[in-house]
Amino acid sequence: MKFGINTFLFTSPFTNRSTQLFRQFKKWGFDGVEIAVENPADIDPVYVKAQLDKHGLVCTSVCACFPPSRDLRGTAAQQRAAVVYMKQLVDMADLLGTNIVMGPLYSATGRADAVPLPEYRGQWRTVRNHLKTICAYAQANGKVICMEPLNRFETDFLNTVEQGLQMIREVKSPALKLLLDTFHMNIEEKNPANSIRRAGRHVGHIHASASDRGTPGNDNVDWKGAAKALKDIGYQGAVVIESFTTDVKVIARAAAIWRKIEPRRDDIAIKGLAFLKKTLK
Question: Is 215 left (phi over 0), alpha (psi -120 to 50) or beta?
């Protein structure tokens, strides 16, 4: 099991200059970095990979970002933009040395319309068809797409593990798996540990995120239950700390971070990593 850190905790957007963070990530004890790519033109993946290698880190995953301009259930232009973007990230993942592209890739983040059921079913079919295209491309390139259920305040489309599994059943691609995030699961799942077990072999990636978006372990997530469930399903993938603070303004607004959650931002990474290594290994 490798432990990583999502770059959104420290910067947005991630650029070539952001690789200056790698030295500190390694010093803190992380194995890898989850690189959030808001705009593929922002980075040279060959350069970023060289910097990862220099510091003895791996890219655990490429984090996809979905502003209103990218939406698999949006306008025709938004749908096209999202498909093109996802294919770009698949290509970039190869250069960065990871096989995982992940995120809430079915819709623009923050879109919560509560549409009538017939309209929702139409959106579902549209997203499913696009995911078939994206996953076929990913599979042909040896990559995995990890789809993340979000809480009800960030999407009205896909909130639970069961909904994610239903989409996987319909897409019918070995390239589609689930990214499970403890923050979202703490809100939406009746029993997060049992939901991890229910997802089983379909779990492709894990976000370790505190119930208040602060430090993992300094919150009310059932970490012992999650650890046991991950062991039960034989999960050996990456566990990535994903958190947000008011220091990164764009992401703070998107994730509704209105106050200072921890005294020191670095503690989320340092203390969170120490807790996860003790609890999950």
Answer: beta
**CA–CA distance, 233 with 89 (Å, rounded to integer):** 28
Q: Is the dihedral of CA 131, 90, 136, 160 positive or negative?
A: negative
CA–CA dist 23, 97 (Å, integer): 18
The residue behind tokens 């803190």 is 28
Structure tokens at 42: 């922002």
Structural domain count, the chain? 1
- Enumerate the active-site residues: 148, 242
Look up the CATH number of the domain holding residue 65: 3.20.20.150
Q: What is the mean pLDDT of the chain?
A: 94
Structural domain containing residue 175: 2-280
The tens digit of pLDDT for each residue in 108-132 reads 998 999 899 999 999 999 999 999 9
Given phi > 0 = left and psi -120 to 50 = alpha, else beta, which region is 97? left
Tell me if the pTM is above 0.85: yes
Q: Burial of 77 by CB count in 10 Å (0-12 exposed, 13-18 middle, 19+ buried)? A: exposed
